[in-house]
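Subject: Sanity check before I submit

Could someone independently write out the structure tokens for this chain? I want to compare against mine line by line before I put it in a report. The sequence has 224 residues.
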Amino acid sequence: MSRSLRHGAFAATALVFSIAALSACSAGNNAQTLQVRPDNAATAVDSIKIQNLNIITQPEPDAEGPAVIAATLFNDGPKREVVETIALPGTNATVALKPAKGKGPLVVPAGGRLIIGGKDNASAVIENGRQAGANGNVQNVAFTFSETGEISLGAAIVPATHFFKDFGPSALPSAKPTPSDSASGTPGASETPGASETPGEQSGSPSGEATDTAPPADGAAAEH
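---
Independent answer below. Compare away.
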């Protein structure tokens, strides 16, 4: 075999090994292509994982009313975790927690998950939506769990439009004159704003376990 042919054979062999090595790097459970992460805020501490976290405000910038927190919580531990509080550090906002049905705490069952936000799921409502911050900003959200303690991460503040339309808060009713008042030319009595219905206050389990309706990721949402 000539020297040039031997060099060509060695080069071809090296190319085959290179391709095999690259293929091995891209396969298996730790493959880069399999590590798809959501565009929304996500983190993991001990057995708790938080994914698809967003603060969803009113669809119209000038609308009055509450904002809501949407997230999916996973518990890979052997004990259930209770979401004791959710807070927005650095603000005066208060977050009211309510399970999917009835009263009681928000529970992330052992080996299970809890969905916050959306129809038939638990809810976390910021009564004064303006205290959540301006759309487009990132607000720190602190979850306090009964076993794991506090977990904080930043959440994007987005309006209840497009992907988030079905997961946002309800606006307060606006005052409108009645037809008889319009005909007579006299101003009608304003409607009295009531407690706006928030997502996640429909049916569900008293323990706070939710259905499979999860908030969509802003792009591609990942679930555990």
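---
OP: Matches mine. For the report I'm noting this point. The first helix runs from residue 3 to 25.
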